[in-house]
Design brief:
Blueprint (H helix, E strand, L loop, with lengths): L1 H22 L6 E2 L10 H5 L12 H4 L13 E8 L5 E11 L3 E18 L5 E19 L4 E14 L2 E15 L5 E15 L6 E2 L3 E9 L5 E7 L18 E2 L5 E2 L3 H10 L2 E10 L2 E8 H7 L10 E9 L2 E8 L8 E8 L1
Parallel strand pairs: 1-9
Antiparallel strand pairs: 2-3, 2-18, 3-4, 4-5, 5-6, 6-7, 7-8, 8-10, 10-11, 11-14, 12-13, 14-15, 15-16, 16-17, 17-18
């Protein structure tokens, strides 16, 4: 109980600091640098989570929550790849190293390639080709304060190059985690993507996609199962999109409008903040993972058609110093990204 009480006190202090930072952050412009919101690890994607709250031996997952980088990741090296839509591909690299009494460090690179495009004149004449890409470099640090409390931070330079135009920003993550002594319970609180744009595309202002997030996991005592819960966008209540082409109020043939009920609107918005996942571990050499995002389902489903948008699933194989993981996240009935990660313990 002492460790839990210390976690509560520490968490209250961190929340106060985060809220102060956000209240003084820039309020103009629109969210840019969407690469910062992309999943970049197969196991994390399979569980439908933004990050994992528990200590993990996968540095590719741990680097997304720096408070979980630990000696378990010492000298780990991870490679990741994801195929999206229309020739858009993502590649990631992550590595870690621990130093006694200082902490554990992580190093990462995330590369998003949008492909090649025709360069045309105003009349449509093709004059050449150009490419577009985003890059995120990550320097992470994590440290155990005591047997229950872990802290960490990420420093993430972000660079975008679209044809001859470029932009640069600096993002910072702060994280704190609680791990129970028997490691059956874990919880993490993160402030992600604090920072500012340093140089911008022409005159277009943009801001980083700041977000407060919480995640927890519970390993069941009498079943090979770990349950996950994620809460996102805690800094903002209403995260429903406004689409005039798809109004929520319905009109019949007689022109009578049936408005969406307040209960339905509240429930829809509430569950858009929630992510759930489950990991089935029948053997130390293998796991199956599943996840679901209501927000993704609402945003990507087609009206009057069956849709599995928001569902994610995958598996992992562990053997000695190697970890291989695959996952798929159902975005749309016409295409979904696939993730693969390989970890080697050096």
């Amino acid at each position: 109980m002492v460790g839990l009480r210390k976690f509560h006190h520490f968490l209250l202090a961190v929340v106060a600091v985060f809220c102060f930072i956000e209240s003084n952050a820039q309020s103009s412009g629109t969210d840019s640098y969407s690469i910062l919101n992309l999943k970049n690890n197969a196991k994390t994607a399979a569980l439908g989570m933004s990050f994992l709250p528990s200590l993990t031996d996968d540095i590719g997952a741990a680097i997304n929550n720096p408070s979980t980088i630990s000696t378990e990741n010492h000298n780990d090296f991870s490679l990741g790849y994801a195929s999206f839509f229309a020739g858009i591909n993502q590649a990631t690299i992550a590595a870690s190293h621990s130093i006694n009494n200082i902490g554990s460090f992580g190093f990462g690179l995330q590369y998003l390639n949008y492909g090649s495009f025709d360069m045309t004149e105003e009349n449509g004449d093709v004059t050449g080709k150009f490419s577009a890409a985003d890059y995120v470099f990550t320097l992470a640090w994590g440290k155990m304060l005591d047997s229950n409390i872990y802290i960490g931070t990420n420093i993430k330079p972000v660079f975008s190059q679209y044809e001859s135009y470029s932009a640069f920003a600096l993002a910072i993550d702060l994280a704190v985690s609680y791990q129970s002594k028997d490691r059956s319970w874990a919880a993490s609180f993160m402030a992600r993507n604090m920072g500012a744009e340093i140089s911008k595309f022409a005159q277009a202002d943009g801001k980083l996609p700041f977000e407060l997030q919480f995640a927890a996991s519970k390993r069941l005592a009498h079943a090979p199962l770990v349950l996950y819960l994620g809460l996102n966008n805690l800094q903002k209540w209403n995260i429903r999109e406004d689409d005039p082409l798809n109004p929520r109020d319905e009109a019949d043939l007689g022109g009578n409008v049936r408005e969406e009920s307040a209960v339905a609107a509240f429930t829809d918005n509430l569950f858009r903040h929630v992510q759930i996942g489950a990991e089935f571990i029948p053997s130390k050499y293998f796991y199956l993972a599943f996840g679901y995002s209501w927000k993704q389902n609402r945003e990507m489903k087609l009206d009057d058609a069956f849709s599995v948008a928001g569902l994610s699933y995958g598996f992992g194989i562990n053997y000695k110093g190697f970890r291989l993981a695959y996952s798929r996240c159902e975005y749309h009935r016409y295409g979904s990204p696939n993730y693969i990660s390989l970890l080697v313990r050096l």
